[in-house]
Amino acid sequence: MRARSDAERRAVGVRRDDGQALPLLAGVLALVATVLIGLVALGNLAGERARAQSAADAAALAGAARGRPAAVEMAVENRGELESFAARDGEVEVTVRVGDARATSRARREW
Fold this sequence. Notes:
It contains 3 helices and 3 strands. By secondary structure, it is α+β, with helices and mostly antiparallel strands.
């Protein structure tokens, strides 16, 4: 049995698979790039949330010890913004925003 020539294959509708790897590779690379971009965004969001929680914890401790001005100062030092401050019965609750993340923390002044 002899091999068919390219002209004979085209005449009877037989297609060659040459060139199929490049579009497949392009699709796989696009999928990998999309997943990586999503992972980077998720990592940034997690980091921002952790920074917001650290800033809220520090602001709550400072606020319990020295009042609202100390809480504001501590939030700013941690690249955040104090959104709320409530002090009642020796307990302080603060909410701090860092970027798009918000965190709330409480502290109690005990001597």
